[in-house]
Specification:
single chain; alpha/beta; TIM Barrel; 9-stranded mixed sheet; binds ligand PBG
Length: 297
């Protein structure tokens, strides 16, 4: 079986820019996270992130128009459901009623040059709020989880996503998603952006409020990495690269700068991503972080 591919990193002008020598910081270096709700005409304030909103697709198009005109090149979509039922299987992650599945055709039509990535995860759609399917005893069923994540990723790619971004941290998800895309003849048309090293953290609190995706019991310690675990983080990056990830995202966490530095050193050919939800509180925090990242790279 073919295990890696280059064409899936080349099918969009922004992807080609990400893979070109970065001589200056341009708008292509920024990716705007967007939370999308079921009600097409809604604009909903997120209480934990003042100044950041959840959007229905009609309102979203209005919000994005001036930003795209000013140079925005890429977005990352998160679906948020409140009326659609959540269940053990995360049925509404890829149903026709899913806000992301519905928004994709409208976005690609309105902004044909915009690069669109979709977060792929089960936590916003499962009744228990965990990022995978569970066994009867509450532990993760990895094999069933990665098969389900591959179905969801494929649904988003079929609806028009240029990038699928699995954020769950399950073993084997990159390979399983790549295989599903290849089988559907989308192997060279959709990229996989791996959340490769992601640390278990209560700093995701505001995000989980925004995405309505907090676990209803327990925590994510058995699938996200222990903060400070440099060895596991490095292995997570290696694992996802070996399975054919096109791009690597390294999440902020305690050993963040070390991991960035080591990933950059050990995998100089991979474009790296750092992503933070912005808004009033984190805008302050991200300035020193940005400076640190520049120093680290
Ligand atoms: N699995 C969902 C998901 N997708 C991206 C993030 C992180 C968002 C952030 O950077 O704040 C999370 C949160 C989590 O794992 O609970």
């Amino acid at each position: 079986m073919q295990s890696t591919s280059l064409h899936s990193s080349l099918h969009h002008s922004v992807l080609r820019e990400w893979n070109s020598p970065a001589q200056h910081i341009s708008p292509a270096a920024l990716m705007l996270p967007l939370f999308i709700v079921e009600d097409d005409n809604k604009k909903e304030e997120i209480s934990s992130m003042p100044g950041v909103y959840r959007w229905g697709v009609n309102k979203l198009l209005e919000y994005l128009k001036p930003l795209v005109e000013r140079g925005l090149r890429s977005v990352l979509l998160f679906g948020v459901v409140s009326s659609l039922p959540k269940d053990d299987f995360g049925t509404n992650a890829d149903s026709a009623a899913n806000p992301v599945v519905k928004a994709l055709p409208a976005l690609t039509k309105a902004f044909p040059e915009l690069l669109i990535a979709c977060d792929v995860c089960l936590c916003p759609y499962t009744s228990h709020g965990h990022c995978g399917l569970l066994n009867a005893d509450g532990t993760l069923d990895n094999d069933r989880s990665i098969a389900r994540l591959a179905e969801i990723a494929l649904a988003y790619a079929l609806a028009g996503a240029h990038i699928v971004a699995p954020s769950d941290m399950m073993d084997g998800r990159i390979g399983s998603i790549k295989e599903a895309l290849r089988k559907a003849k989308l192997g060279s048309k959709a990229s996989v952006l791996s959340y490769a090293a992601k640390f278990c953290s209560s700093f995701y609190g505001p995000f989980r409020d925004a995405a309505k995706s907090a676990p209803s019991f327990g925590d994510r310690k058995c699938y996200q990495l222990p903060p400070g675990s440099r060895g596991l983080a490095k292995r997570a990056v290696e694992r996802d690269i070996a399975e054919g990830a096109d791009f690597i995202m390294v999440k902020p966490g305690l050993p963040y700068l070390d991991i960035l530095y080591e990933t950059k050193t050990n995998f100089p050919s991979y474009p790296l991503f750092v992503y933070q939800v912005s808004g009033e509180p984190s805008r302050k925090a991200s300035r020193p972080l940005g400076e640190q990242v520049q120093t680290a790279l």
